[in-house]
Phospho-2-dehydro-3-deoxyheptonate aldolase (Aaosphaeria arxii CBS 175.79), 464 residues
Amino acid sequence: MGHTQGANGDGQNWSPDSWRSKPIKQMVEYEDSEAVSAALKKLSSLPPIVTPTEITKLKSHLRDVALGKAFLLQGGDCAELFSYCSDEPIDSKIKLLLQMSLVLIWGMNKPVIRIGRMAGQYAKPRSSPTEVVDGKTIASFRGDILNDFDPANRTLDPERLVSAYFHSATTLNYVRGQLASGIADLHNPLDWGLGHVRDKDLQTKYSKIVNSISESLRFMRTIGADTAGQLHTVDLYTSHEGLVMEYEQALTRSLRNPGGYTPSRKSSDGKGWYNTAAHFLWIGDRTRQIDGGHVEYFRGIENPIGIKVGPSMKTDELVQLLDIVNPNKEIGKVTLITRYGEDKVEAMLGHHIEAVKESGHIVVWQCDPMHGNTRSTPTGLKTRHFSSVFSELSSALKIHKQHGSFLGGVHLELTGDAVTECVGGSEGLAEEDLSLNYTTFCDPRLNEKQALELAFLVAGHYRE
Ligand code: PEP
Ligand code: MN
């Protein structure tokens, strides 16, 4: 294994397993170590799910985002389940991300880069290792990659690591197939389904946007502006939280770099280390400790990476983190995913923007308006108010502008299905409606209508 000198100046070598020498949060303690070894051996022998060429292509797109030349839309489930690996939920998610991106392109006059929280978003950090279900204390559900949601079966099962690989690969295979077969073909009319919008003014506003997009597409088709086939399909990249280090390590490979790409950390033979499980990975807010195993792992891979930035992040800590994971200050290598909450964003974001500016790092700033705005209903259901989500996003847009910075993207928990998990939006979902179709296994997601509405509102912000 080609060990290399640590670029963060701490004199330590990095290798795909050097995270093991550091303290690690959200640790996975299996009982059967032989079964774990067998699963990891199997994973290590399987082919990459994504390739260095795709990874570096996304990285160069994110450089454009960091420089204000493009916008990043990232979305998907909080916890993706193996059972979502099925045609309908995948189709509806592709369509939703496509429609949202068209609205954003229309609003911002910039290309939009799409990343799904899918094809691998199977691991969940938990605030407590146990929970009480029907009066009994049992292990928390930690995502399909680790244990079963069924309260009767919460034991950690190493075979799930291998199953996660196959569900990721199958999901991405279907995504690739559908994209190549024209699911995102803009020659076909799109069904925007705005019938639910009760407010007349909003209905008019959204219809105008849709008509404008449809007109533009019709015009392009008529004049034959599609010579290179750009209207036939779009790119969709994959991402997940890099949480279960055993899994990520097994999918981390020393591979030849695409032409023209110089890796930031060469392995002994000049190759780079790529996490081939997803194009983009992020470090969660619970596992971003400077001295922790997750940060250690992340500093070695060539992939573009995200760091969740919650209200407890100190400004000097943020800059230290950037220096560790991106010592060469590659533009757009790191996406800072801010998630303070609507009531905290004003007090925090400006300081973070200034500190990063001063450090000389040029990052992608992305707003996750979901995770700081989770509330419980009196009956104990986790929900989020559409108005809080929009409020944090609007504040972020405003604060970036005030600081001469650019909000480069949004990070959303959403689904293409008609769930009732977040309240508010044009459909007027109330707390009493939540039980109608509350199906998330972790955090509440925007449904298709709410997600599209958020895109309309952001686009409107830029057009006004
Ligand atoms: C998530 O994105 O689902 C998540 C757990 O976020 P955070 O790390 O920001 O809490
Ligand atoms: Mn979540």
Q: What stands out?
A: Residues 78, 125, 284-286, 308, 310, 339, 371, 443 surround phosphoenolpyruvate (ligand 1) (CB under 6 Å).
